[in-house]
Amino acid sequence: MFKHLFLFTYGLILSAVCGTLVGLFYILQGQLIELIWRDSYFQPLRNAVIMIAVALVILITRRWFGQLPKNFSNIMVEIRRTGTANYRYVLLQMIIRHHSG
């Protein structure tokens, strides 16, 4: 009984932490959108610089972290091969998955 209560409490705490992180991410995202696109939407030079900066961030993170987000089949292959999955990049995968649709 104690084990089930502990696991439930642990899961509840982790869910609260994840929910807080996602909420903070949405607040930060809204603030950045207001900061960057405060004026007119049609400013081609500024928009081009922003797009190039985003492309560079994507290329750099791909070189460091590999293909993210990992799809379910790749995660299952990793679990079968090693017995576990690598959860070091979960937050990064959440951010990328949010923006990829």
SSE arrangement:
Blueprint: H1 2-36, H2 44-65, H3 72-82, H4 90-100
Description:
With 101 residues, the protein is mainly α. It folds into 2 domains: 1-38; 40-101, no CATH class. The protein has helices spanning 2-36, 44-65, 72-82, 90-100. The longest helix is centred in the first third of the chain and has 35 residues, at 2-36. The chain starts with a helix and ends with a helix.
- Domains counted in the coordinates: how many? 2
The structure class reads mainly alpha
β-sheet strand percentage: under 5%
Mean pLDDT: 79
Radius of gyration: 19 Å
Largest sheet: none
- Unreliable segments of 5+ consecutive residues: none
Which outline best applies? flat
Brief descriptors of the model:
101 residues, mainly alpha, 4 helices, 78% helix, 0% strand
In short:
With 101 residues, the protein is an all-alpha fold. The protein has four helices and no strands. The radius of gyration is 19 Å and the shape is flat.
